[in-house]
Amino acid sequence: MITWKLKASQYSLLLAAFLVAGSVRGQEVGKPETKPRVVVFGVNGAEWDILKPLLLRGEMPNLAHVIQRGVSGKMRTISAPNCPKIYSIFETSTPPQENGITGFLVHGVTANTSMLRTQPLWSLLSQSGVSVGMANVPATFPVKPVNGYMISGMLTRGKDCEDGVLCSPKLSEVSNGDAVYPRNMAPELEKNVGDFHIDCARMPEAKDLPGHEVATVYSWLAKVTKIREEQRKLFDYLLASHPTDFTFFVQSCEDRVGHWLYPIQPYNVGYNARLHTVQLNAFPDQYRAMDKVLGTILGHLDENTILLIISDHGIKPLRESESHSTHMDHGGTTPIIAKHDFEDGDDVPGVFIAMGPGIKKGVRVTGLPMSVFDVAPTILHFYGITQPPQMQGRVLTEIFENKNAVSITASSSPD
Ligand SMILES: [Zn+2]
Questions:
Q1: SS3 string of 281-299?
Q2: How far apart are CA 252 and CA 256, in angstroms?
Q3: Alpha carbon of 313 to ligand 1 centroid (Å)
Q4: CA–CA separation, 128 vs 134, rounded Å?
């Protein structure tokens, strides 16, 4: 524990030194360097099985726009994937046992940024003078100093939060650490965006459902809609008022809705006619709503921006062979009918979509050659930064028009 604390403080000092050195260097040279602009939109648990029919029916015009102009495919995840594990792989390109984030709970304590044992992407980019903006990315609480801003996401601690269990604090309800870096940005956000929820709502408990299924489903979905709109407004504000070279935003309501309202059939495990006939569109509706958030993001991008849309895993209905204990979540209080922590991660691949200068257009990658480990090395490559030796993924060269390009935006940059 002491070693971790020492490491965390040393790491913060080092980063602060790099940030100062970076700004001094910039002043000496006299002109700010033009850096590629990369926006990453993480859609928690985005599932191709749900996305494809919506795309075919033309109900996700913004996502269709990106897919038609970019590269898309499945993204290989790891065994028993969950959000803190995979987002920490996105950030470090190292396996959970090496980066330190092995699940929602690590040695009985809620996963947090002070447990990270390998240098994350936000720190590597900051050190290289790339400005970084992040909002609602899972497992980024408490926030760390970056060359820009960071607003934490899933697993932020606050009012009514039990260890290792999801909760949904508002900005004003956060406790046990900072949710916003720099600190003085918090009042600015409250003023311009409002007191937004940092994460999507926790699912209703089993005890609250019998006899109240219809009311519970509709009131809970109304809360989800409200949270998504708060986050859309947050992203809109950040992109307009705090543009950064590298931007990473995440929404998590898709995953939460899928766990208990996936449109399953009577033959599926856990089917409850009183609950699962109430709102068959609840889960697909999340993707229709996500498409509108994507529309807001696209409104801020130009043809020189690289956009990545990624998911940490998919989500699938439970199987006949699942034991009873796998039907409950949130510490055994909440019934679920779909999940993603299957032993074989290849059963629940995520989504990878890329669009921008130097990236192939209208190409679909088949199979599972692209992995969650490849996200960080590929992002570093956009900035011409060589991946550090501990990173185990690779640069996804197959998405580039010119495989040999060192930094894919170098040729398209006006200077
Ligand atoms: Zn997830």
A1: CHHHHHHHHHHHHHHHHHC
A2: 7
A3: 6
A4: 17
For 17, phi and psi rounded to 5 degrees? -60, -45
Q: How far is CA 38 from CA 71, 241, 386, in A?
A: 15, 16, 17
Determine what percent of the chain falls in helix, strand and coil, rounding each to the nearest 5. 40, 15, 45
Residues 6 or more apart from 105 whose CB is under 8 A from it? 111, 163, 164
Structure tokens belonging to residue 3? 């070693």
CA distance 310 to 90: 10
pLDDT at position 47: 96
- Kindly give the distance from the C-alpha atom of residue 82 to the centroid of ligand 1, in angstroms, as a whole number: 5
Residue type, 393: G
Distance (Å) from CA 230 to ligand 1 centroid: 20
| C-alpha span between 142 and 180 (Å, rounded) | 8
Exposed / middle / buried, residue 140 (Cβ in 10 Å: 0-12, 13-18, 19+): buried
Tens of pLDDT, residues 24-63: 333 344 556 689 999 999 999 999 999 999 999 999 999 9
Q: Is residue 351 within 8 Å of 48, Cβ to Cβ?
A: yes
Q: What does the block give as tokens for 55?
A: 């795309």
Of 17, 207, 348, which is closest to residue 216 (Cα–Cα)? 207
- The pTM assigned to this predicted structure is 0.90
Res 168: pLDDT = 86
Q: Provide the pLDDT for residue 404.
A: 58
Distance 350 CA to ligand 1 centre (A): 9
Question: Which residue ranges of the chain lie beneath pLDDT 70?
Answer: 1-33, 323-326, 404-415
Question: What DSSP character marks residue 212?
Answer: -
